[in-house]
Every structure is written in structure tokens, then in C-alpha cells.
Write a structure and sequence with these properties.
Blueprint (H helix, E strand, L loop, with lengths): L5 H21 L5 H4 L3 H34 L5 H8 L1 H4 L2 H12 L4 H10 L7 H27 L2 H8 L4 H29 L3 H6 L10 H11 L1 H22 L2 H4 L4
Length: 258
């Protein structure tokens, strides 16, 4: 490895680490436990963990078939479809929240139908939080899985097909096992992204304590009235995210570095 790479690598690492150091310097660590144990903070943390878990499960259920279709299908327009699927990666989260609001809100074409036919209103509910988190997090899972499928090739699936296995059997017995390592890393990334989601959530779900106010929204709320509490909650969010990624130890992210 060329030694000169250490210079930009160190700058990149500093760009990530120094802002966290800034938070640590700003915080009186002795007061942190007392600042994060309020009922509102604990409720926000619990809601964040619960909704992130559900949205990650939704990402897996919906994202795995989508990744397989994108990687294995040769239908016209698949590149355009891939660009659309990855759109939440580049869209400002607030724009994503507005899009969801004008789809599922009372004035949205699907939200209006749900309201009139079933009396169901999704915006400003916990379900809206889960939908917003799934919207922004699912591309991370799809990118991980599609990359694994394309790099791994389809020779095992073709061999299974030539031996007489039906498409569904090939998917269950060959494709899914090949996807498991990438599925683990993609799920962890999706969970971490859902945990930190803010813009789409506050636009589509609002900030109702105990209902839609997740930990990032609680940080934003506290920043307006108690900066010390907001900084302490921000550190808590960082610690939880690091624990999630470190404990899960996605092999695809670590490569062979052990």
C-alpha cells in the first residue's frame, strides 16, 4: 500500500472522529447519566429501537426480492428502475418526507383512498415513523445485496436449474444462502440508518412524544430548550449506533481484516 494514502485517509478519519470529539469536549460526562434518564428521553430511545427493528424487518422482506430482481432481471429499463430505487440515498430526507406525505397524507391519492374506504390515517402515527425509516434505509440493504449477487455471479443458480430445480427452489436453496453474509451487513446498515433518521420522520410523522418522537427528534427538541441535554442525547445516539455496528460485526464491511 502506498504510504501517501495515509494522508487523505487520516484526513477522512479526522472528518468523522473530530465532530464526535467536539461533542465529548462540550459535555460534562459526569452529568450525562442524569441528563439521559428523563422519561421523555427513555421513551424516545425505546421508540427508536422498536421502530428501527420493525423497519429493518420490512427492509429485509421487501428489499431482498427487489435486489434479486435488479441483479438477475434483464428487462428493458432496469437501469432506470435501479436509479429510482436508490433515489432515497441522494434525496434530502425532508423531500422524502414530503413525498410520503403527499402519497399517504389525507390529501395524497393513496392516503385519501385509505381514509375514505377504511378510515385509516397514517401520517403522525408510529406507522408513519416505520414507513419513513424503511423509505430511507431500504436502499442500503438493496445496494449490499445487489452488489453481492453481481460479484458472485449466477453459475450456482444455473447449475441448479440445469439439474432440474424449479426457480423457487433455486431461490430458497441457492440464492438465499449465498446472500446471507451480505444480508447481515445490509441489515445492520439499514438498522443504523433507521435509528438516525430525522428529516423524513419529522416531515411525515411529526414529533409527538411517545408516538413519533424518536431519539433524533428528541435531540432536536431538547436543543431548543436545554443544549446540555441535547448533547448528552446525541452522545447516547452515537454510542447506540456504534454498538449496533460493532456487535453485529458485518463481515462484508470488515473484509479479511482480523
Amino acid at each position: 500500500m502506498p504510504w501517501v494514502l495515509w494522508v487523505p485517509a487520516a484526513l477522512a478519519l479526522a472528518l468523522v472522529v473530530l465532530p464526535v470529539v467536539g461533542l465529548l469536549v462540550r459535555t460534562d460526562l459526569r452529568r450525562v447519566p442524569g441528563l439521559i434518564v428523563s422519561d421523555a428521553s427513555l421513551a424516545a430511545l425505546r421508540l427508536s429501537l422498536e421502530t428501527a427493528a420493525v423497519s429493518t424487518a420490512a427492509c429485509i422482506v421487501l428489499g431482498v426480492p427487489l435486489a434479486v430482481v435488479l441483479a438477475r432481471s434483464a428487462v428493458p429499463g432496469i437501469r432506470v428502475l435501479r436509479a429510482v430505487v436508490l433515489l432515497p440515498l441522494v434525496l434530502p430526507p425532508v423531500v422524502g418526507g414530503l413525498a410520503l406525505l403527499y402519497l399517504l397524507g389525507r390529501k395524497g391519492f393513496l392516503g385519501y383512498v385509505l381514509d375514505v374506504t377504511a378510515g385509516v390515517q397514517i401520517p403522525f402515527t408510529t406507522a408513519a415513523v416505520i414507513i419513513a425509516q424503511t423509505f430511507v434505509a431500504m436502499p442500503f440493504l438493496v445496494v449490499s445485496l445487489e452488489g453481492a449477487l453481481r460479484s458472485g455471479g449466477d453459475r450456482y443458480e444455473q447449475i441448479a436449474s440445469t439439474l432440474g430445480a424449479r426457480p423457487w427452489t433455486v431461490f430458497r436453496r441457492v440464492t438465499l444462502p449465498l446472500l446471507l453474509p451480505a444480508l447481515g451487513s445490509g441489515a445492520v446498515l439499514s438498522f443504523a440508518r433507521a435509528l438516525g433518521e430525522f428529516g423524513a420522520t419529522i416531515t411525515f410523522a411529526g414529533s409527538l412524544e411517545g408516538v413519533t418522537r424518536t431519539l433524533p427528534l428528541e435531540v432536536y427538541t431538547q436543543a431548543e430548550v436545554d443544549v446540555d441535554s441535547a448533547v448528552a442525547l446525541a452522545l447516547l445516539l452515537i454510542v447506540v449506533a456504534i454498538l449496533v455496528i460493532a456487535v453485529a460485526r458485518p463481515r462484508a464491511l470488515e473484509g479479511n481484516a482480523r
